[in-house]
Design goal:
The complex is a heterodimer of chains A (113) and B (113). Chain A has 113 residues and is mostly beta strands. Chain A is 0% helix and 51% strand. The N and C termini of chain A lie far apart (31 Å). The chains are: A mainly beta (113), B mainly beta (113).
């Protein structure tokens, strides 16, 4: 158990809909990262938040957004969903702003039908 | 454009022997390298890392070697055990980690009895 929790575990929704994925980092970790893993791709970095502020941005679509709250939990919002958004979404956390040893949650599997 | 490449999608090794997983990178700004291990239905787990100022880092049965001139790193597992069967991801980050971690697509290691 990494100490990082993600909810929900599975999510099935229709095209055009909007969903919110939630992540709680390990106790004491200030950074939260979001990754997408599609079937034919490795883990793609989406975005990083450090102590409530956006710190780094990767291959995140404009339809996707994230935030980190004062209690350090984070939410990833996916809107106008398309079939191609079906993937595993992982959250990870680390103690500092430097993304070296990250601890991953179990992931949320999103299926868009 | 894949900046971190794991060219072997799978590798089969006999229990007790050495497992060698390879990783190549193209971005000369990468300064820190990590290996993660992933079991099905779980998030990746941090295994071992190496900074570009070193060429070797050892932790128990796991050793990572870095050849900066060749832009190549490898993970050695000795001796290989059945519990090592998993997908192994190589990841890299530039100094300061401004762009998060860049992952390879993974190598599925199968340890045969």
């Amino acid at each position: 158990d990494s100490g990082v929790t993600q909810t929900p575990k599975h999510l099935i929704t229709a095209t055009g809909q909007r969903v919110t994925l939630r992540c709680s980092p390990r106790s004491g970790d200030l950074s939260v990262y979001w990754y997408q893993q599609s079937l034919d791709q490795g883990l793609q970095f989406l975005i990083q938040y450090y102590n409530g502020e956006e710190r780094a941005k990767g291959n995140i679509l404009e339809r996707f957004s994230a935030q980190q709250f004062p209690d350090l939990h984070s939410e990833l919002n996916l809107s106008s969903l398309e079939l191609g958004d079906s993937a595993l979404y992982f959250c990870a956390s680390s103690r500092t702003s430097v993304p070296y040893e990250q601890y991953f949650g179990p992931g949320t599997r999103l299926t868009v039908t | 454009d894949q900046q971190v490449k794991q060219n072997s999608p799978s590798l089969s090794v006999q229990e007790g022997r050495i497992s060698i997983l390879n990783c190549d990178y193209t971005n000369s700004m990468f300064d820190y390298f990590l290996w993660y291990k992933k079991y099905p239905a779980e998030g990746p787990t941090f295994l071992i890392s190496i900074s570009s100022i070193k060429d070797k880092n050892e932790d128990g049965r796991f050793t990572v070697f870095l050849n900066k001139s060749a832009k190549h790193l490898s993970l050695h597992i000795v001796p290989s055990q059945p519990g090592d069967s998993a997908v192994y991801f190589c990841a890299a980050s530039p100094l300061g980690g401004a762009d998060g971690l860049t992952f390879g697509k993974g190598t599925h290691l199968i340890i045969q009895p």
